[in-house]
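Researcher: Let's continue the batch. This sequence belongs to Outer-membrane lipoprotein carrier protein, and it's 201 residues. Same format as the previous ones, please.
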Amino acid sequence: MAFTLALPLLLHAIPAQADALATLKSSLSGTTTLQGRFTQTVVQQNGKPQQSAGDFAIQRPGKFRWSYSAPYEQLIVGDGAEVWLYDPDLRQATVKSMGNALESSPAALLAGDNALEKNYQLKPLASRNGIDWFDARPRQEDAGFSSIRLGLKNGQIVEMELIDRFEQLTRIRFDNVKRNTRLDPTLFRFTPPKDVDVVRE
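Model: Same format as before. Here are the structure tokens for Outer-membrane lipoprotein carrier protein:
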């Protein structure tokens, strides 16, 4: 009897989940550029939350700029072929090939191509505070994160929650976001300043 009563609810939930996933895919596939501000909070186990903030720019596929301005300056630039990490205080720049690393990282969801289900297992979650949430679990076992949660409001990504292999939680909130506007190509280029040590990985 209980199964009979639950069956209509189950049949209703299946298309609802499909509609939710379609909304997520449509939002990402319909995005060519994103630009705005971000606030990032890292919640460590038994530790004080660490907060940072800055600007970001994304041009799909494969190009992004993540610029921290507080509490310390740091710059991450992906030009489609390589990823640069520049630390002005250390006078050091690290560069590595983008390769397949992008496909198993959070950047793949925002800056990668549209092959979401190839790289992630997607599942809609319960809405919170007017935000529709989705869980994306990397299919690659060596991915840096065990779970990535995306929060959408009115079809626009407004938050991300990242859980790494050590159960450390990183929350990212996006503000003043501009979607599908023309971006300056120089945002996605990086040339190390003189007297900076360059480390290739």
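Researcher: Any comment?
Model: The radius of gyration is 19 Å.
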